[in-house]
């Protein structure tokens, strides 16, 4: 049976993982490889790396991070943040990313979704949708939540799925950082209109919140509650299992 | 042990290379017949559509050679590379495959495709799948299968020296690596018997 997925999300700045990571058991708490290995061993089903470096040297640094992680961790890796062209996508995939997550670029040039899907395969194109509920509707935002668009989330989701996106990563800006649960309404609305996998993001404060989201969609993105060690991937999975959600557990250890 | 990963322009071969290196294989990514002949085993990767993949393989001029190699040394197809091992596919237009394992490749019936994510196979361990087409073949060639929305998905197939994995062992964590390791050990036994 197909499992629901738990996906830790790591913010990377200038080659280091940032934002309140509190793992005493790691030798170097900012090292992307060590953190990726830690999450892999605790049962993460995939990893998302979000490039939040603003500088122009960011591309090469991120490629180095991806390639270092891909040599040590053998689960799907998604990279998002600041992707501006098909060439950027190609370099990231060559460096070892399995998927890329497009947000602003997708909104500004939707035809690139089709081109990217045709060239690299739908399976590696994730479209990230930042949504905000206001004036009675869910609107799509770009530029890391700074720029409002006139796109309605449900219409945009249908469009990107038709253009060949392989998965949707849906972040609720209303819920993000509040830790009082995912926005289940938008997840439900999107589930009704697209058949591609949906990853819920924004608002998880505990494992029960993850359960609520995974009863509606395929995967949950987790950041602060894991990094702050409020819970672990394994713990979240056990709670999900107790609610009859199919989860994957890591049992085989090599040597 | 030296593995020739066939380079024919279909999908990302670097993650397969990294995984093989992690279990101690020497990897050469090539479409050169001499290099393939020198290798202990052959790996056919692939992501994308069946007709384009067969067309790209044809352009390398390697097909008859690979068909002969598959009777002489261990040959592993992964994902689309596994589907190419069969007689034909109905993806897009009906297309002939390599014909190394009897069977066809057909679109899955599930309402929600692709079949993407972790699904259980052998010993109830999970592996990472991404595909919309699956092999339709005799049970005697199926080593392990997954179940998706009521449909049986052949996950590992085998006939003689030819093995296919529908999922991505290179992206299936420690268990995925252990399957590649088992294949490597089988290849090493094969090498020992041959000499």
UniProtKB/TrEMBL annotation, chain A:
Superkingdom, taxonomy of origin: Bacteria
Pfam families assigned: His_biosynth (PF00977)
EC number: 4.3.2.10
Pathway: Amino-acid biosynthesis; L-histidine biosynthesis; L-histidine from 5-phospho-alpha-D-ribose 1-diphosphate: step 5/9
Keyword check for Amino-acid biosynthesis: yes
Gene3D superfamilies: Aldolase class I
Top-level class of the enzyme under EC nomenclature: lyase
Active-site feature positions: 11, 130
Compartments it resides in: Cytoplasm
Gene Ontology terms, MF aspect: lyase activity
Keyword Cytoplasm: yes
Predominant place of localization: cytoplasm
Keywords noted in UniProt: Amino-acid biosynthesis, Cytoplasm, Histidine biosynthesis, Lyase
Reaction catalysed by this enzyme: 5-[(5-phospho-1-deoxy-D-ribulos-1-ylimino)methylamino]-1-(5-phospho-beta-D-ribosyl)imidazole-4-carboxamide + L-glutamine = D-erythro-1-(imidazol-4-yl)glycerol 3-phosphate + 5-amino-1-(5-phospho-beta-D-ribosyl)imidazole-4-carboxamide + L-glutamate + H(+)
PANTHER family, sorted: IMIDAZOLE GLYCEROL PHOSPHATE SYNTHASE HISHF (PTHR21235:SF2), IMIDAZOLE GLYCEROL PHOSPHATE SYNTHASE SUBUNIT HISF/H IGP SYNTHASE SUBUNIT HISF/H (PTHR21235)
Function: IGPS catalyzes the conversion of PRFAR and glutamine to IGP, AICAR and glutamate. The HisF subunit catalyzes the cyclization activity that produces IGP and AICAR from PRFAR using the ammonia provided by the HisH subunit.
Subunit text: Heterodimer of HisH and HisF.
Family the UniProt entry places it in: Belongs to the HisA/HisF family.
The protein's name in its UniProt record: Imidazole glycerol phosphate synthase subunit HisF
Native source organism of the sequence: Exiguobacterium aestuarii
Organism taxonomic ancestry: Bacteria, Bacillati, Bacillota, Bacilli, Bacillales
TrEMBL record, chain B:
Keywords: Amino-acid biosynthesis, Cytoplasm, Glutamine amidotransferase, Histidine biosynthesis, Hydrolase, Lyase
CDD domains: GATase1_IGP_Synthase
Gene3D superfamilies for this protein: 3.40.50.880
Location of this chain's protein in the cell: Cytoplasm
Protein name in the entry: Imidazole glycerol phosphate synthase subunit HisH
UniProt cross-references to Pfam families, sorted A to Z: GATase (PF00117)
Functional pathway: Amino-acid biosynthesis; L-histidine biosynthesis; L-histidine from 5-phospho-alpha-D-ribose 1-diphosphate: step 5/9
Keyword Chaperone: no
Gene Ontology MF, one: lyase activity
Annotated source species: Exiguobacterium aestuarii
Catalysed transformations (reactions): 5-[(5-phospho-1-deoxy-D-ribulos-1-ylimino)methylamino]-1-(5-phospho-beta-D-ribosyl)imidazole-4-carboxamide + L-glutamine = D-erythro-1-(imidazol-4-yl)glycerol 3-phosphate + 5-amino-1-(5-phospho-beta-D-ribosyl)imidazole-4-carboxamide + L-glutamate + H(+); L-glutamine + H2O = L-glutamate + NH4(+)
Biological role stated in the UniProt entry: IGPS catalyzes the conversion of PRFAR and glutamine to IGP, AICAR and glutamate. The HisH subunit catalyzes the hydrolysis of glutamine to glutamate and ammonia as part of the synthesis of IGP and AICAR. The resulting ammonia molecule is channeled to the active site of HisF.
Residue ranges constituting the Glutamine amidotransferase domain according to the UniProt record: 5-174
Enzyme Commission (EC) number: 4.3.2.10, 3.5.1.2
Active site positions, chain numbering: 79, 168, 170
Subunit structure: Heterodimer of HisH and HisF.
InterPro entries in alphabetical order: Class_I_gatase-like (IPR029062), GATASE (IPR017926), Imidazole-glycPsynth_HisH (IPR010139)
PANTHER family for the chain: IMIDAZOLE GLYCEROL PHOSPHATE SYNTHASE SUBUNIT HISH
Lineage of producing organism: Bacteria, Bacillati, Bacillota, Bacilli, Bacillales
